[in-house]
Structure formats: structure tokens, C-alpha cells
Amino acid sequence: MKHPILISTAAYDGYDLATAFREIAWAGVDLVEVAFIEGYTDSFTEDYFNDDNAAKIATLLVEHNLKCLSFSSHVDLSRQGIVEVFKHRMAFAKQLGSKYIVSNAAPQKSKSQFMQNIKELGQTAADLKMVIGLENPGDGKANVMDSGEPAANLIEEIGQETVKINYDFGNLLSHCFGKIQPQEDYHFVRNCAVHYHIKDVVSDDSGWYFTEIGKGAIDYQKILKELAALPEPAHRAGRRDPLIWQRFGG
Length: 250
What we know:
The protein is of the alpha/beta class. It has helices at 17-26, 51-63, 82-95, 111-128, 148-158, 169-175, 182-185, 220-229; strands at residues 5-8, 31-35, 67-72, 100-103, 131-135, 163-168, 193-198, 200-204, 207-211, 243-245.
């Protein structure tokens, strides 16, 4: 399968992982993105990311015939002390079998510290044989990767094969207040995106909110047809870009 489809546990906020895994398996999907996102999933502390909990989650995955290809763990990668925190989360994700770990990048004002941190984290990803997927934000605040073009430029500036893009179509709309359309904007990152979050949004007088995929403002019929038709460049041969189905989440 050229683009494997995963379901994120972020869609099951308020339910434990056993319930989320059972429902994902029932839906006929065998790949999962395990999500630990501050503000979007049940609260947790850094102490959670230990060997015992990794073993418990791994056991649950086996029980439900699921594989964890991706781990969603959004943080500000320019934050003080974040390098060791994120390294620890990466090691935890690796214990679950994850190939990808998804995170925020950083506010524009913190770019210098972010660039220093991501160089070190990119090397750690190489050591773990993982890929960091930096996600475009949705909060409307100036970021180092506000949309597709600056995101692609950022990846070129970083210059590490282990640091790529997770493009979130829904985030783009809320972040840019509908002024940029994701079905066009994502074209900028198609050569540096290794991961996509598929969720839909609509807006009203109170702001943006999530809705069922296909019932929102994003033209997924066009997007998914284009993704399915993309040829694999020689340097990406054999790589499969995950599509993460979300209703909620980072």
C-alpha cells in the first residue's frame, strides 16, 4: 500500500487506549498513531514515558492486532530543556515500534534556539532510525512554518533526512484564518512531507471547529486523488507516507 492509513488515538480523547485500540481494530484499520498531546488528550506527565508503560501499550497493540507506525507528541521544540524531554519521548515511541514522531516546531521569535535543538534531535532520530515530522500549526500565532512554502524552506535549511514535514490540512485553515487553501498550499511540501494529518474543519461566528471528514471546508476528494497519483521520486522509493485520519487532535 503506497500510503498506509492510520487512525490517531487523539480521536478518542476521554477514552483509554484499550478502548481506542478496540474501536480502531473494529473499524478494520491495523495501523495506529498513538497520541500524547498536551491539551488534546488526557493529561500526563513525563514520568509516564517509562519502560513499564511502553510494555503495557505494546501488549495492548498485540492484543488488538495493531501496529504503531506513528507517535504524536506535540511540544514547542525551542522550549528550555525540551531536547532531553523529546529524546525521552522518542525512545518511548521507538519501544512501541514507531517509525515517525510528530511534533510542533516553534514560534518564529524562537527560531534560533529551535534550529540549535532540531540539529541535535535530528541526530538522535538517525540513531533511533526514526523520522521527526514537524507539523504546521493551527493557532494563528507567528511560527517558523506558518504554511507550506516556509515549511519547505525550513526543512531545506535544517538539511537532515531525519527531519521532515507532517502536513496538517485542517491546521492550515485555522492558522491562516481561511486566507490560504490547504488543497493548494500542501503542494509546496509534497517533496519533504513524510506524514499527513487528515481532518476537516468548518467555521462560524465563534471560530473554527472540527467536523466529519468530507463535511467541512477542505476539498479532500481532490487532495486524496492527487496523493494517490503521486509518483515516488527515486530518493523516496519504498517509502510510504502515512495518512492519519483524525477528527480531533494536533
